[in-house]
Fold:
Amino acid sequence: MKNSYILIFILLWITCSSVAYGQVGDQFIKGKVSFLTSKSVYVKFDDTSTLTIGDTLTLSKNKLACLIVTNKSTTSVVCSVINDCKIEKDDVVYFTPVLNKPGPENKPVENEIKIVTDEIEEKKKESIYSQYINGRASLSSYSTLSNTRDDRHRLMGRFSLTADHINDSKFSFDSYLNYRKNFITGNDSLYGPDSYFRVYSLSVKYDATPDLSFVIGRNINPKMSSVGAMDGLQVEKYFGTNYIGVIAGFRPDIFDFNFNSDLLQYGAYFGKIFDSRYFYSQTTAGLIEQRNRDQIDRRYAYLQHTSTIFSKVNLFGSAELDIYNKINGVSTGGVRLTNLYASARYRFNRNFNLTLSYDSRKRIIYYETFQTEVERMLDDDIARQGFRARVNVMPMEHVSMGFGYSKRFQSDNQNKSDNINGYFGLTKIPGIGGQLSVNFNVNSSNYLESSILSLRHSRTLIKNTLEADFYYRHV
Structure:
């Protein structure tokens, strides 16, 4: 029986506006949202004499009170959003006046506020972008002590920084870096390189307009998440709820993840967003070609979908369909489904949810990179499939628990496995504070059986700045 003990210590540093035009009717005054900033909504009316500061405007599309007047001129008002409403440009709003309402007359003053009808001048006065910065750095050490093999020690450092619209500008920055150093006693040749440095994201984004953006550097496009990181340029343009995008650059080296100018990659995609009170969805489809020294390495179509229904059901799916084949130097037609993933999460209430997922993956074949191995790989072209179910429960305040089961299988009965896991967590430990989680995992496969019990204690040392974790695992 093999026994291993792992000890971890981790230190983490964590770091509606419109101008409207209106018309007085018998029962209401109608206006239109003309401009939005990060803090205000500008609405334009034909006349604002019946409006006073503090009045509430109703959004026509959902019949909810969504805006409250904070300032006004003779033809426009400035509002703040209430009730978490989503306001868009050109939304119609209306105000129902109360006749003969008491109180002093609130005469509009031409110079009370300066509402510029020209949106370009309005953007100069107040940026439509809002800065958001979030950074995190972590340093962790892992020690594996075993009585059956050499002891192993590992040091890991991670750094991530997201800076959206720096200083309320059009520029944003994103990065995620990872460094690992292995300290291995005995024959270390069995464990490969003793250090790794990986750059998963390092990019700059420029929002030329709210509908047009450029990203340069290494970046993972969230609309094409399974495609992975790419070094180069990505351009995206929105047309209302529709969007198109193009990518051009290089994929990282498949062996060391460094920059490789031989691996040219380019493609295009388009998509559609639906957004209503009870339903949200985003669907993206694209075509990508990958090359190796000017020769086609892979060409495939891509599809990704995500949706939320009634704030209870979350769906996600992605698929990759290879449409290029090359055997013995001859290109042939045909299609090959290499990747299919689908998941569904149902939220019964805030304390109970269920998640189901299925995936089917085949080995990705790069015809130039693996040209001497292509025939052997195609002979072993069997989909590795998997199914997973998970239940999460919060029976009482500060207490959470969950149970999961996953199964992997394929048609030749190789690489099959069954995995059972569960956890119990306390978000606030009575008396001493901090968090505690206990996890167990039982796995059975063709070549291995294992049982793992782990405990983790986390606590804040300096609020919003420094946290510490203590982790113990018995295998």
About this structure: The chain has a mean pLDDT of 81.
